[in-house]
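input
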Amino acid sequence: MMLSTKQQAMFWVLWGKVEREEFPSASPFERDAARRAIMFRACGRVSLKGVNQSKEFDRLMAAVAAITGDYRAMSYWSIAAERRTAHMIHECARQIGEIVGESKGWEYCQAVFEQARLPASWIDIPDALLMSTFQMLDTHRRRLLKREGGWLGARVGQPLGFCADRHYVRRGLAISFYDGAHPASAPSPHFYAHAHA
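output
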């Protein structure tokens, strides 16, 4: 099973709504056949076990929501990839602020956007350009780690790869990191005010 427990639960809750509304008097066999047919049309799978956690799951959830006429859920699942990418951009921008100092972090991000002829705020960037925007910021973040902190890579305990839950702490010229929640993980309101401008 590739889907997380949470994703499986989300699917079965929405599918339960389909069964109640569309197949109230159908036999278990008919409901199972209908579910497999809808899954196959949505993502090319006949079993939930083969559905991947990202695009296939998004398409499946959007298709199931469309059957119930739940347009709020359908629109939510239709733009799931864009939401994930926007989240990665947000986290990468936060990390850049942590690496160079929050007072300069947003200026670095805006310089990357300006060089690429993008809007000054990532919120205004067209959906089709979100992934390339993230890639530009991530490349910039890696360069900053090498330049500002002298990082050499994961083999020496200085990972350059992107992790959305990673937090950087700068003390003078030294940059350290930790992954996951930490009391000091909340960026200052000053950086957030600029990042959301």
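quick obs: Confidence is low (pLDDT under 50) at residues 183-197.
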